[in-house]
Amino acid sequence: MSNYSITDTATTSLISPHISSNLFAHSTPLKLGVLASGNGSNFEAVAQAIETGELNAQIEVLIYNNPEAKAAVRAANRGVEAVLLNHRDYKSRDRFDAQLVQTLRQYDVEWVILAGWMRLLTPVLIDAFSDRIINIHPSLLPSFKGIHAVEQALAAGVKIAGCTVHLVCLEVDSGPILMQAAVPVLPDDTAETLHARIQVQEHRILPQAIALAAERRSQVKLVPS
């Protein structure tokens, strides 16, 4: 049986692995904390997947570090509590991440979802939620890590781009890969047009990857020590 799926949007894309949309339908809802710095479209995608029953979860809190982030407006529109933690108010990354951990625990968060979070994480946060922090990145990792990934892909002349959902480790964009979606690069693509098509796939795979990560973690816990 194939472990990938072909999905038609504006152009054909390949998503791997393929999982059932109701993979986590019969478990206790996952308690999510979403971190966002900007528009919040991936926050919206996760919230929409929860609403439609694709993902059995609840967003306990949205934390945003940019006072102008539109993600906060999206959260308010969905009745999700939003907390502003402006990193500029903290003397170090460690202190900022310590406040993130405190806030996430205050809301009883189990899984941390980075949805356009434009901050490097320290061990303070990574160790507090070991193997329970999920990030989405607009490239087919391990290619084109870091910022401006779409521009990097275009500059390199690749013919296939895409996005990756992965678990977070200390090294940037290097944790275990959960799911990927490939998107063809068209001859007339700009960074804006290619990124827009990649985002369509980000919105598809992020909710599924969250369910997949939780399922894998539950299976590990069931294995006798």
Molecular shape? globular
Uncertain ranges: 4-11
Q: What spatial order of strands do you see in the largest sheet? A: 1-2-9-8-7-6-3-4-5
Straight-line distance between termini: 31 Å
Give the SSE order as H and E letters: EEEHEHEHEHEHEEH
Q: Characterize the biggest β-sheet.
A: 9 strands, mixed
Key structural traits:
alpha/beta; 23% strand; globular; nine-stranded mixed sheet; 35% helix
Question: Any overview of this molecule?
Answer:
- The protein has 225 residues and is α/β, with parallel strands linked by helices.
- The chain contains 6 helices and 9 strands.
- It has helices at 41-52, 71-77, 93-106, 123-128, 149-156, 191-222, and strands at residues 5-8, 12-16, 30-36, 57-64, 82-84, 111-114, 133-137, 160-167, 177-184.
- A 9-stranded mixed β-sheet has the order 1-2-9-8-7-6-3-4-5.
- The longest helix is centred in the last third of the chain and has 32 residues, at 191-222.
- It is globular, with a radius of gyration of 17 Å.
- The chain starts with a strand and ends with a helix.
In short:
This protein has 225 residues and is α/β, with parallel strands linked by helices. It has helices at residues 41-52, 71-77, 93-106, 123-128, 149-156, 191-222, and strands at 5-8, 12-16, 30-36, 57-64, 82-84, 111-114, 133-137, 160-167, 177-184.
